[in-house]
Structure formats: structure tokens, C-alpha cells
Amino acid sequence: MELIPVQNFLFLLIPLAVIWYYYRKWVDDSTEVIYATIRMVIQLLFIGYVLIYIFENDSWYIGLFIVLVMISMSSYIVMRNIQKIGIHSYFIIFFAIAVGGTINLVLVIEFIFELTPFYEPRYVIPIAGMIYANSMISVSLAAERYEKEVMTSSPHEALKDTFKASMIPVINSFLAVGIVSLPGMMTGQILSGVDPLVAVRYQIVVMAMIFGSAGISVIVYLKMISKKA
Fold first, then answer.
1. Position 130 pLDDT exceeds 80
2. Is 8 contained in some domain?
């Protein structure tokens, strides 16, 4: 695919401006959307240059550092959505995301893709990003929901309702894929000229690892937080 001209990105400002207007009007916050957008662009540009360096040097320890940064930052982002902020809460979130994500990361790169050597930065870093990001989203939903549910329900009911609510986005994506939506990885491969049936196999792996990492991370989190409570 050809490189997208920089000026073409200006068209994306149209829907972003609409969202910013209503976010300011309804949420009474005129900076968060702008801040998030600027940070997104800077982070992606930064990681683009970092990935070029990693791919050229093929250093496993740099890749490990990137993975740890992913887990640490995703845990920090989850902390924004809960009231009980502290080092113990952060550790629980970090541990849950690390366990759920890493189990699935190892399964995919070692037993499904059978990478040789075990660490291939071009594959491991993007896969890890998808895994830990989706674990972060599900744990974030679980953390916010559990705090509310445990105040009005029994511990068992709180766990049940929280687990179900946190898995809704992932289950919905399972139900919609191929009918309502063509996921980003599959679409990218098809646009790059890959056979659709080959792209489908890779997408199945992606969907399964996202579901597995999100579910296990939420289970670990809820088991640890419920014992703490």
C-alpha cells in the first residue's frame, strides 16, 4: 500500500471536531478529546521509530522492555477508572494483565506460529500490543463495574454481573466478526494482497487470543480483588 499523504489526514479532523463539540457540551470538558488525539499521534509516531530500531537490531531484551512498558502503562490507564487508587490496586491490575496476556502471548508465538527463534520482534511486538490492550480494556471495565456492584450486591452477584459486563465487548466482537465487521488485521492483510482464506486463519488466531487474554485477565483480577474485599 502507498504511504498516505500527510494532508489527507486533515479529513479525519471532521468527525473528531464533531465529537469534541458534543464532548465539551455534554461532559463539560473541552480538553480531554484534544489531549487524547494529540497523545495518540505522538505515541504512534514515537513507536513507529522505536519499532524500526527494534526490527533492525533484533534485540530480545529491548523487546522485553517494550512488553513491560505495555503492561505497566495499561495498568496505569486502568487505574484512572477506579476510586481505590494505590500501589496494592496497581499491583493487582498489573498482575492480572500480565498473567492473562502473557499466557496467550506464549501460546501464540511458540505453539501456533512456531516462531524460530522464539523472539521475532516483527511478530511479537504487534501481537503483544493487541493482547495487552484488550486485556486492559476488559480489566478496566471489570474494575469500574465491581466497585459499584459490590456496594449494592452480594459478593457472588457482584462477581457474576462484573464478569458478564466486562466480557460484553469481546463476545460482541465474536458475534459480529465476518458479518458486521472485518477486523483491522484481516482488512490490512487483504488490502496488502494476501489470500482472504489465509487472512481468515490469522484473524481466528487474533480473535481467540484476544478473548483468552481478556477473559483470563478479568478472572485473575476478580479473584484477587474479591479476596482483598
1. yes
2. no
Cell for 203?
A: 484473524
Is the Cβ–Cβ distance between 108 and 205 less than 8 Å?
yes
- One-letter amino acid for residue 116 of the chain: T
Look at the chain and report how many structural domains it folds into: 1
Q: Which residues of 101-129 are buried (b: 16+ CB within 10 A; e: fewer)?
A: bbbbbebbbeeeeeeeeebbbeebbebbe
CA distances from residue 170 to 140, 182, 187, 190, 205 in whole angstroms, order as listed: 13, 15, 18, 23, 14
Q: For residue 54, what pLDDT band results from cuts at 50, 70 and 90?
A: confident
The mean pLDDT value for 47-54 works out to 82
Rounded CA separation 35/148 (Å): 28
Evaluate whether residue 29 is within a structural domain: no
Q: Measure the CA–CA gap between 118 and 60, rounded to whole angstroms.
A: 10
The three-state secondary structure class of 179 is coil
**Environment class of residue 212 by beta-carbon count within 10 Å: exposed (0-12), middle (13-18) or buried (19+)?**
buried
The pLDDT value recorded for residue 220 is 96
Res 228: pLDDT: 63
d(CA 140, CA 199): 30
